[in-house]
Here is the input.
Amino acid sequence: MSILSDRWIREQATQHGMIEPFVEAQRREGCISYGLSSYGYDARVADEFKIFTNIDSAVVDPKDFASTSFVDRQTDICIIPPNSFALARTVEYFRVPRDVLVICLGKSTYARCGIIVNVTPLEPEWEGHVTLEFSNTTPLPAKIYANEGACQFLFLKGNEACETSYADRAGKYMGQRGVTLPRL
Here is the structure.
């Protein structure tokens, strides 16, 4: 498995719609950087957030997640309460090729502030907006800036195309748009 370069990412994005909208070069003036890098793509967080709240004293159950555990906000700056988290999504819509697996890492700017970004791998032939989880590990409120960099996606090419892709098995998060809550 090898990591794919900026040339490959640019070609797939511009000729095959792998990333839409696509920013061809790093943008960083006055913002948390985003766009194409040497061996990855720094995606932006959209302005749609679901901020976790425990106002109803709910139990967090991945098999029966209560949507009432979130407060929805559309904003340029999301404030995450101390020791809590928020769900968001990428501005970009991704279409993963059949012979590629995509992994995501958080931005160092957020990590150095105690804000962790978590994303599960994007499997071969998955497509959609990526749901992002921002965990505020600090005892203080934390800011997330919409339309700025949130995380970096790395593209890994398999030694051959997979036998069964995410699309083949009709994965439950296929084609998601907006912030998507857990599904069973």
Observations:
- Residues 6-16 form the longest helix (11 residues).
- Residues 128 and 173 are 8 Å apart (CA to CA).
- The chain has a mean pLDDT of 94.
